[in-house]
């Protein structure tokens, strides 16, 4: 059945191992819930359903503490009830979404205490996770505060039901220019998201076309409100992507100039209307002056003018404006060697530092280009101490195998979060910028483009569920290791069999490097087919308008982004990184071609020439992709047949498709360079 794949990491499979049952059972008699809010009710429902599914047992519900065998769920308002049991006064240290879990063997009780009801919900999911991962319930003493305030998801769903860069079917929200009305599916999505701590969502595409512009009109606001209420019960705030030109498009004005009084008033009225439907509306997400979307540039206004105007309108209601920095010239002449797309976001936004209102947050993609297999980290992080920043990842695998190849992105995201910007000297990693601990940010955190659709298993490739899970966990706490997150996901998803856990974990943890091996070498990027971006095409974007070049010729390859001889992009980093990237001696191999143009005979730190590296990694990557398939085959019988077959089909495709990548890349560079493979392998 499709049920196992649909249930993702919320399987709650029956627990039969008797020592475990013996450990857990004494705790599982009563649940004490003295409060009654929507979010607490979700917490209760999750607990009851998880326990009943894992133990075939229904908990008794009461509002009074018992002498023994109970699980208490409560907030600050009920602190007195459990104060003595908790002992040390931790209340003051909990943030708004934090929680404590404590268990007491003496009377088989567990206390899940949140400052607010959201903390209780997160605590319940944590307890269920402990059980799913075979952890003991004795002497639990957990204290958790999320590190990031905004932990967000962006859907790129269009109202016609398609999903931009969607690789898992159609939208779960829209079809035929209206809402789908399968509220249950949306609720199940809310459950998945809140189980990993996500607290905000914008559920329409950042490219807001004609129909979507009307989401903020009375035609659709009742439906938006309905969806918002489903998310609200799981502690998730709703945002909408808006069309910057709405005053013209739906307001009948002749301008969207942010400094025009009519426009300003229109947005104020519009905002008031939205809040009548959704009193806790999170705010708006804006892609302006980017890839042909309208924006303030039309009126010779800055991005500060544009975003502040919206921020002012939404401020009285407590809303925020997420303003994307993906602004670059997408009509570039490839002959123009002075323009470098990588420099664009910094050039546009850095000079505006200090001009944005407190409720504007700049949303910055992790790299300066566009979610490539590997690229530098955006130099904007840390470069705007007076401006709120939000980091944007892409969970959808647009450039990383489109959820047909397995490519587990947690290790990539961890490298980015740990990247030292040097903004406040050594020890200023990206994660400390976006969690607000470096500068006085009022709003900040992490967001990401979702990878789900209406496929039964949500993500097309079942292993791609791990990217959504890991995104949430990492965003809650960027200090978690990839290994811990992976271990949790595999156990919750496939059970705790040791072979299954170690094999799948290892496959996932290696998959990004494997994908990199048979695709783009040394940080070069963009060797994909235009438009859909799937499969190899070395010159696919070489002579295009998008600013995406590798400059390969018969002598060498790479983009010279140095200050001394190139585009000067390295100059956007703080001095330590600038120096590191500027020099061939210190630039790390994996980003060499992102920063430098070198001859094919250039010798890497690994001791290999660039050309030999290209050949070797491509041959190796194919073997590794074949290896993934073989390792999966060896798990037959330990995974339910539906998921086993589904994943196997994708791994078979990946192994085949990796050969296509290998042969096209190797052949291209062999023909260009004329340099044979040292090992004499088959190149066409
Ligand atoms: C990429 C992607 C587009 C998307 C854009 C964005 O360029 O291919 O489909 O609209 O990013 O992030 O806005």
Structure characterization notes:
The chain has 684 residues and is an alpha/beta fold. It has helices at 3-6, 18-24, 38-55, 79-86, 117-132, 183-195, 210-213, 221-232, 246-249, 261-277, 303-314, 344-349, 410-418, 430-434, 465-476, 482-494, 498-518, 575-582, 592-595, 610-633, 641-673; strands at 30-32, 60-62, 70-75, 99-104, 109-114, 141-144, 150-154, 174-175, 178-179, 200-202, 237-242, 283-286, 320-324, 360-365, 389-394, 445-449, 556-557, 598-599. The protein has an 8-stranded parallel β-barrel with strand order 7-10-11-12-13-14-15-16. β4 (99-104) and β5 form a beta hairpin. The radius of gyration is 26 Å and the shape is globular. The chain starts with a helix and ends in an 11-residue tail after the last helix. Alpha-D-glucopyranuronic acid is lined by residues 164-165, 206-207, 287, 291, 326, 370, 398.
Radius of gyration: 26 Å
Shape from CA axes?
A: globular
Strand content: 5-15%
Mean pLDDT: 97
Biggest sheet, open or closed, and with what strands and sense? 8 strands, parallel, barrel
Spatial sequence of strands, sheet with the most strands: 7-10-11-12-13-14-15-16
Classify the secondary structure makeup into a structural class: alpha/beta
The span between the termini is 44 Å
Specify the helix fraction band. Answer: 25-40%
Low-confidence stretches: none
Bound molecules: alpha-D-glucopyranuronic acid
User: How many β strands by DSSP?
Assistant: 18
Number of helices: 21
